[in-house]
Amino acid sequence: MCHQESEDSMTDRKDAEAQVDAFKGDVIRLEQEVAKVIVGNEEIVKGVITCLLAGGHVLLEGVPGLGKTMLVRTLAQCVDLRFSRIQFTPDLMPADILGTNMIVEDEHGKRHFEFQRGPIFSNIILADEINRATPKTQSALLEAMQEHHVTIAKTTYDLDEPFLVLATQNPLEMEGTYPLPEAQLDRFLFKLTIEFPSREDLHSILERTTTDENPQSKKVITGERILAMRDTLRRVPVAHHVQDYAIRLLQATHPNTAETANSTQKYVRFGASPRGAQALLLGAKVLALLDGRYSASISDIREVALAALRHRLILNFEGEAEGITTDRVLKEILEKLPEQAG
Asked: Roughly what angle, to the nearest 10 degrees, separates helices 2-35 and 274-290?
């Protein structure tokens, strides 16, 4: 009996190792294909792919010209999925995103309503400059992000899986924009900030864009494989002490709690919601698999903390007046939070 249990355990371990290797290999191929077009920004690419595999949406923030739109387009080219781009403007209406019922005439001359699907009925959606649309239009997209279906005239239409929204916003030129409310920001798994490229990366960008060099990426992964990878991700175990660290990290973002740092008490009005802890664990599981491990660690939690939590903290008046960033608050929390509960 013991011998049989030992063989079963060994078989399970080999299966787990094979799944980890396959997961890691597919992600490496995807990253390499994206890198044919996108220069630098390895951490941003990794973050976007993490959201794709974890089944969450991502908000990309950066000044114009840093390649936010190009990154999303390139990812869509590397994955065998349908892609739609929606340019958000103040006059964009919910029907322009979701679709609408149209009166059509059949071959017999009879008229009837037929639903014309909008660009939301794709697998990868680029919501370009999402903060330029009105709250009514923003909420139409964000409802689809949360529920993975849309309702038109009392009829519900399911969205195809996998379904990923990559929204971009420009931190400059905020006049005339409609910043996303905190409750809607909370629906993004990660918020990724794209930094200005280094001198070496700028050389590579100029060589690719001002010469006859025209790198092209190819499709290396299917939608079915992404769904299978999501199943693998969900089965990755998280030890109790690792999950406890994620919970204590979440609690430390709230003022007046036991784990609160000084900057949290001074500058934060509201901390992260439970969705933040979910983002921490899902992101940590992806990092574990990419490192060839079948269990998430505290270091994985710490590595994804900024991306998972920076958009979920609400600063108070003093924090905003002094120009404090949520990244600064989170870095102090990470520095002072012990790995083991006291």
From this structure: 90
Give the integer Cα–Cα distance in Å for 288 and 296: 5
Range of weakest confidence among 53-57, 102-106, 210-214:
210-214
DSSP class of 186: T
Which are the contacts of 145, defined by CB distance < 8 A and separation ≥ 6? 57, 165, 187
The rounded distance, in Å, linking the Cα atoms of 131 and 180 is 6
pLDDT score at 305: 95
pTM: 0.86
- Strand 314-315 to 268-270 pairing: antiparallel
The fraction of the chain above a pLDDT of 90, given in percent, is 27
Provide the CB-side half-sphere exposure for 169 (13 A, CA): 19
Q: Is 153 left (phi over 0), alpha (psi -120 to 50) or beta?
A: left
Contact 124, 69 (CB under 8 A): no
- Are 29 and 303 contacting, i.e. CB atoms less than 8 angstroms apart? no
| Gyration radius from the chain CA atoms | 22
Tell me, what's the pLDDT at 208?
73
Tokens matching residue 138: 């923003």
Cβ partners under 8 Å of residue 129, min gap 6: 87, 88, 89, 168, 169, 170
Write the DSSP string, 190-258.
Answer: EEEEPPPPPHHHHHHHHHHHSSS--------EEHHHHHHHHHHHHT--B-HHHHHHHHHHHHHTSTTST
pLDDT in tens, 23-58: 888 899 988 888 877 777 788 888 999 999 999 999
pLDDT tens track for 288-310: 999 988 889 999 999 999 999 99
C-alpha 166/C-alpha 305 separation (Å) is: 19
What structural domains and CATH numbers belong to the chain?
A: 12-235 (3.40.50.300), 237-342 (1.10.8.80)
